[in-house]
Every structure is written in structure tokens, then in C-alpha cells.
Specification:
Protein name: Dipeptidase
Organism: Candidatus Cryptobacteroides avicola
Structural class: alpha+beta
Keywords: Hydrolase, Metal-binding, Protease
Low-confidence stretches: none
GO biological process, one term: proteolysis
Largest sheet: 6 strands, mixed
Number of helices: 13
Mean pLDDT: 95
Helix content: 25-40%
Distance between the termini: 17 Å
GO molecular function, one term: peptidase activity
Oligomer: single chain
Length: 448
């Protein structure tokens, strides 16, 4: 595969750029034509790489791309999952280059989607191309690329149920996660789930003059801040009643296995430019982001935030709140528990609304599975060291849906790094990881 990469390196980059230049932002209606354009481009790339068929399928939201290569019905089938939608680019002024005009700096590709997930998705297309053209593919391969992962995949589960027979496979192969470091590869054997809500606190029926009414009428922004601060106690424990009922405590043995992952707390703090970490008492930083749930405010607003002063007591205050969940916690149950709790702590001088946005459950896969062992062997060969099993702190809720619908496990061979700053300005993807990812995926096919 190394020689194939070297021979085709420039072509690979130009083909990836053709995807990165399309602003496929799923959360913005104005980019709907771009979603269609990106989906069509993916079908072209799949067919050029050697797929027998590839087509764009409509859904209630953005389209799904499905491609397939039938080698032999007697052979095992790998279903490759990825997503072609990307996050918005705001704040645009913090980007050092155009987010939709890829640029290579310091050995990395800078662009929105360079890592998450166009760059990682593209590795699978090229590894597949190599296996078809050069190495003799010994598997059936199916591809499913969606355009709604960044907004919670509202359409894919329904589409997958309707096309269950078409999606039959033995394993779901995914590259949409990170590894510990370039020197210490890792394979995610589990990911957290997600419950995402928006809350609204309403006080008076209109904005008021803060001089005439301040001190006499409750300020919804102040009230919302008080309510939010009560959601987590001094030990970092979430106070929503029933929140931890289904959380399974890991044994000391399992915690010791996860602790194999190298972690430098001082380097972590330096990278983030913080003096101290903060989280649930009794757990390490890696445990807090892998095996424990959490609650965070993702955005908060209300009143006047424009230039200059406006002495207003606002009528409304809003916040977006996400809860990362561990396996066994049910996203719908947690959303309901949160809504009931948040309404119950509202003082009588405000009204509260809780609107569910999206969510999904977490999952775990056994490290003894043939697929995990094949991935481990492949990554050991590429990186020269055995990968560490880890748990991802992020969420890909639809993978739990696909696991349930299709009855097969996902395998997360992610090649991103924390330095890639996905979802933030100046997202990037190291070229070294981009090419090593292709090698490891091709070797997975050899060993699985």
C-alpha cells in the first residue's frame, strides 16, 4: 500500500480537495444544494474506486450515499460508515485560511471536514481502491455515507430499517474518531451517548427598563444561571433525579485496563492553557471523558448583547445543554428525567420550557472479537506498537441505532488526533495520519 500511496499521492489529495471544497453544512438550509452536490461527488469517487454500484438515496432530510462491491456471497461483508456533512465554520474570523479552500501547512491539511469526517471517510475509499486494483479483495464491501451526523442523524435509522436487507453485513467499519497519539495508537471499543436539549426561561411578558423594574421583577437570565448552576454539585455530580440509575460502575480491573493509556496531565493542561482540570470527584481525567456521563451548557443567551449599552431586563433567556451518556443509559429516558427535573426547580416567578433536540445511546464492543483483533494487528504493523483499547468521549448516536437494526457491531478505527481541533476554527488532519490510515484499513481487510 505504501508504494500505491506514493504513486497516487497527488491524485488522492486532489480528489479529497474536491470534497472539502463543497460546504456541506447540514444544519443550514442554505447549504441544501451543497449536500446534494457532495453526495453525488461521493458516488463518482466510489464508482471510480471500483464499486459495482453507487447511488444517492433520498431521505426525509439530507440524502444517503450507498455503494457496493460484490466479490463472493460466501465471503464476509464489511459495511463502511461515514458522514459527509460538516459543522458550521463560525467564528470565521479565527480561521487562518478559507475553511473550504484546503491548504497544506506544517504537514497537515487545513479545511472544514479535513478530519471530521471527509478526510477519514476518504481513506476508506482509497484503501478499497487499492484492494480492488492491486491486492485482490477477499471481502464484499458496502458503503453508507450520510449527510446528517452533525445534526444527530434524524433520518438514517428510518432509512436503515427500510433498507435492512440491502445493508446486511458482518461488521460496521468506521473512521470518525481520534486515537491517543501518533506514537500510541488506540482503538475505540465504546462511545458515549447523547441527550441534547434547549431550555427557555420566560419572566415578564416583554423586555423591561432595568431602572424602572430592576430589583422588583425576576430577571430570566439570572434565574437561568441559578438553575443551571444547581445541575452539578460541588463534587461534579449531576443532580438530576434518577440520572445515574442505569450507570454501570466499572470494576477495578477494567479501570486498570483503561489506565494503560499514556496520559500526561501537565501536557493536557498546557495544551488547553488551563491551570487545573475539573470534573467528577473520584475519577481521572480519562475516566471522566470515557466511562462517566457529564452535563455541559453549549450555549446561553438572552437580553441585549450588541455593541454599547442597553439597560434592559430581558423577557426571556435560553440555553442549549448536552448530556454525554455511558452505555446502559437511555437517551430518551435521560431527556425525560432532565425535563422533569428542570421544570421542578423553576421558581414561581418564571415559566420554563424544555425542547429535546437530538440524542442517541452509547455502545460497547468486545476486544476479543475477530474484527477488533484484525484491526489491532493492522495498526500494530503500521505504527510499530499495539494499539490501546479506549473509550471515546464523543458520540456517534446513529451507530447504536445501526447496531440494533442490523444486529452487527461497529468497529471504530479512528485516525484523528486532538490537535486536529474538529468542530473548531482551523480544523486540520496530519498527512502522516491520512496515509497511515489508508495503510491500516487495507491491512484490516487482509487480516479480517
Amino acid at each position: 500500500m505504501k508504494q500505491y500511496i506514493e504513486k497516487n499521492k497527488e491524485r488522492f489529495l486532489q480528489e479529497l480537495y474536491s470534497l472539502l471544497r463543497i460546504p456541506s453544512i447540514s444544519s443550514m438550509e442554505e447549504h441544501k444544494p451543497d449536500m446534494e452536490k457532495c453526495a453525488r461527488r461521493l458516488t463518482e469517487l466510489l464508482l471510480e474506486a471500483g464499486a459495482d454500484t453507487a447511488a444517492v438515496y433520498p431521505t426525509e432530510g439530507h440524502p444517503v450515499v450507498f455503494g457496493e462491491k460484490k466479490t463472493d456471497p460466501a465471503l464476509s461483508t464489511v459495511l463502511v460508515y461515514g458522514h459527509y456533512d460538516v459543522q458550521p465554520v463560525d467564528p470565521i474570523e479565527l480561521w487562518k485560511s478559507d475553511p473550504f479552500e484546503p491548504e497544506i501547512r506544517d504537514g497537515a491539511i487545513y479545511a472544514r471536514g479535513a478530519n471530521d469526517d471527509k478526510g477519514q471517510l476518504f481513506m476508506h475509499i482509497k484503501a478499497f481502491e487499492y484492494m480492488v486494483r492491486e491486492s485482490g479483495l477477499k471481502h464484499n464491501v458496502k458503503f453508507i455515507f450520510e449527510g446528517e451526523e452533525e445534526i444527530g442523524s434524524p433520518s438514517l435509522a428510518v432509512w436503515a430499517k427500510d433498507h435492512k436487507d440491502m445493508l446486511k453485513a458482518d461488521i460496521i467499519l468506521v473512521s470518525d474518531t481520534t486515537m491517543i497519539s501518533e506514537k500510541v495508537p488506540s482503538i475505540n471499543c465504546g462511545m458515549r451517548g447523547l441527550s441534547y436539549v434547549e431550555v427557555k426561561v420566560t419572566g415578564p411578558n416583554k423586555d423591561l427598563h432595568s431602572g424602572h423594574y430592576g430589583g422588583a421583577v425576576a430577571n430570566p437570565v439570572n434565574v437561568l444561571c441559578d438553575m443551571i448552576s444547581s445541575l452539578i454539585d460541588k463534587d461534579g455530580h449531576i443532580t438530576v433525579k434518577g440520572f445515574y440509575d442505569d450507570v454501570v460502575e466499572l470494576s477495578a480491573e477494567d479501570r486498570a485496563k483503561l489506565a494503560r493509556a499514556p496520559f500526561d496531565l501537565e501536557e493536557y493542561k498546557s495544551f488547553l492553557d488551563i491551570k487545573e482540570v475539573k470534573g467528577e470527584k473520584g475519577y481521572t481525567t480519562l475516566e471522566r471523558t470515557g466511562i462517566r456521563p457529564c452535563l455541559d451548557v453549549n450555549g446561553i443567551w438572552g437580553g441585549y448583547t450588541g455593541e454599547g449599552a442597553k439597560t434592559v431586563l430581558p423577557s426571556e433567556a435560553h440555553a442549549k445543554i448536552s448530556m454525554r451518556l455511558v452505555p446502559n443509559q437511555d437517551s430518551e429516558i435521560i431527556t425525560h428525567l432532565f425535563a422533569e427535573h428542570f421544570k421542578s426547580i423553576a421558581p414561581p416567578y418564571v415559566k420554563v420550557e424544555v425542547t429535546p433536540c437530538h440524542g442517541g445511546n452509547g455502545f460497547l464492543i468486545p476486544i476479543s472479537s475477530p474484527a477488533y483483533q484484525a484491526a489491532s494487528k493492522a495498526m500494530t504493523e503500521v505504527y510499530g506498537t499495539e494499539p490501546v483499547p479506549s473509550r471515546g468521549g464523543g458520540s456517534i448516536p446513529v451507530l447504536a441505532d445501526l447496531q440494533r437494526i442490523l444486529g452487527i457491531d461497529p468497529l471504530l478505527m479512528g485516525f484523528g488526533l486532538e490537535r486536529d481541533t474538529i468542530h473548531s476554527p482551523n480544523e486540520s488532519y496530519l498527512l502522516s495520519q491520512f496515509f497511515k490510515g489508508m495503510e491500516a484499513i487495507a491491512l484490516f481487510y487482509r487480516y479480517y
